[in-house]
Amino acid sequence: MNKIDLSRVDLNLLTAFEALYQEQSVSRAAERLYLGQSAMSHTLGRLRKLFDDVLLERQGQQMRPTRKADELYLAIHDVLSVIRDRVLDQSAFTADIWEGAVRIGLNDYCELVYARALFERIQAQAPHAQLSFVTVNRSNAADLLKAGKLDMALGHWSEAMDELEVQDLYLEKHVCLFDNRVLQKSLPLSLQDYLDTPHALVTPEGELSGNVDNILARQGLSRKVALGCSRFISLLNLLKGNRLLSVVPETMSYIDDSEQPLHHCIPPVAVGDFAISLAWRKSDSAHPVLSWLKQLMHDIVLQERHRVIGQSEV
Question: What is the pTM of this model?
Answer without folding.
Answer: 0.70
